Amino acid sequence: MSPTDATVGPAVLQVRGLNKSFGANAVLRGIDLDVPRGKVVALIGPSGSGKTTILRSLNGLEMPDAGSVTVGARGATAGSEPAGAGGSGVVPQLPALSLDFDAKVTPKEIAALRDRSAMVFQHYNLFPHMTVLQNVIEGPVHVQKRPRTEAVAEADKLLDRVGLLEKKDAYPFELSGGQAQRVGIVRALALKPQLLLFDEPTSALDPELVDDVLAVIKELADEGWTMVIVTHELAFARQTADEVVFMDGGVVVERGPASQVLRNPREERTQQFVRRLL
Ligand code: ADP
Q1: What number does the ligand 1 atom closest to the CA of 200 have?
Q2: Residue with the nearest Cα to atom 5 of ligand 1?
Q3: pTM score, two decimals?
Q4: pLDDT for 127-175, tens place per residue?
Q5: For ligand 1, is residue 173 a contact (CB within 6 Å)?
Q6: Could you tell me the mean pLDDT of each successive run of 10 residues in the chain, 278 residues long?
Q7: Which ligand 1 atom is the nearest neighbour of the CA of 50?
Q8: HSE, side-chain direction, 13 A CA sphere, residue 105
Q9: 200: left (phi > 0), else alpha (psi -120 to 50), else beta?
Q10: Is 27 a pocket residue for ligand 1 (Cβ < 6 Å)?
Q11: Helix (H) or strand (E) holding 199
């Protein structure tokens, strides 16, 4: 495979014609989205434009009314796998998965989708009655049925990496927001997903805690993880994202290289939005 092919890579995520309504409120209206392997896409747009609903649809937390989601096989081009993707390069080689929401999607397909995409939530969503370590190994051990000793060893490594190994026996209430979100990120990584989804990962944090969390996410991007990030941090999006997708009213208004969309948007709605935030 040539370096160019490796850079563009096959799509890890392909979304086609995604529609979702809540009652009379058409929240997603024909969303298409492609994320090549190892690329980072930032989803930006005003509140209520449907960004979170897209992420939740990609993680089986929301059931779209129509459209399809395909998560490509990792390992199809094993030779070109970014060294860091998967943390230790041992992301399981799962076959590609295609969900067609025009037909009936089964719980088994939703479980398979969750096996491939892991979400980092705005409010961390850690289990309050579990320690940090228990939070991190819950998915690998109880959902993915991996051996506990292996899951603990990997959790230790990941926690160490984000500077939180000494907090492994702490409970979520004993953590700062920044620490809790780093645990949220570790918990997602521990699932060894093909795709990482971040939903406003820093918007609940005090300003002085934001940079630490963004630094971890940037590091993961540099390592070659494939990610979709919903964010209002446009400076961060400019540094980290390969592509920026601007949404409004349930449709994609504009998409392109981060520098183009953020510095030189073509559409007036994007211009207004970007001008307000940058
Ligand atoms: P964004 O992430 O861009 O702020 P969301 O995807 O959270 O937008 O929401 C898009 C729209 O969908 C909003 O009008 C919101 O009120 C509505 N919505 C989201 N989730 C639900 C739900 N579970 N039930 C009813 N309406 C919802």
Answers
A1: 2
A2: 50
A3: 0.91
A4: 999 999 999 999 999 999 999 999 999 999 999 999 999 999 999 999 9
A5: no
A6: 46 95 97 95 97 97 96 56 46 83 94 94 96 97 94 97 97 96 96 95 91 94 95 93 97 97 96 89
A7: 6
A8: 23
A9: left
A10: yes
A11: strand 195-199
